[in-house]
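Running co-folding for cytidine-5'-diphosphate.
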Amino acid sequence: MIIAVDGPAGSGKSTISKLVAKELNLLYIDTGAMYRAVTFMWLQTQLLGRPYLEEKLITDNDVRKAIKKEILYKHHEKALQIICDNIKIKLETSDSGLKTFLNDIDISEYIRTTLVTQNVSHIASYKEVRTFLVDEQRRISQGTNVILDGRDIGTVVFPFADYKFFLTASIEVRAKRRLEDMKKTGEEISLEELCADLKRRDHLDSTREEAPLLKAHDALEINTDNFTIDEVKNQILNIVRSN
Ligand code: CDP
């Protein structure tokens, strides 16, 4: 069984998907974490973002030099292709939450930083990155019952998914939810800044050429503004269980 959950940032996708996965014993794939992992690698090759882990993430000196050379000449597509050819992303569900590994290094805490969030929609717009990650998402899902959340699951990754949901919420509600998430990580950011970042990402994600954020024609749209997490989860569970 494949369940696709798409929608903009802060619509509740990952929270709901995790709970549905637990309830139905499905594998949960947070595809946003995968785009964030590639973005983190990209920033590291440019000496941006703490900690500086580039040498640990890609141990081959020649590969690192090749990426840097392409970045220097602003051949971003080529640089990203080399990155994709040399990384292995692994998602793991543990008691302390979802963990993201890049070439076996745990980068879970770094992929949620503001720097990664600010750059991820740009990196996610490159065809090289999308082709690589869509292939990975299909590979990991093979032969298992799975729920994936993202922007293009019901439209591109699994157009024939068994169930498709498109979660939405107003910008105000989404920004407030994000603010609560950020408080837990200790990063300081205002509601206004968060609103601006969400709007900017919504715009980039919806207008890009490759696999834009779009409701699949056969997806069920759920506006989560006035529902609790449990209510949305139960709506989804009722639909899946009644079929
Ligand atoms: O959690 P949040 O909604 O902030 O974002 P995310 O799910 O971690 O995804 C981060 C970014 O990755 C999105 O803003 C998109 O630019 C990109 N993304 C994508 O293009 N396609 C996906 N299937 C998942 C994420």
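Result summary
The pocket of cytidine-5'-diphosphate is lined by residues 9, 14, 31-32, 35-36, 120-121, 124, 150-152, 201, 205 (CB under 6 Å).
The chain has a mean pLDDT of 95.
Job closed.
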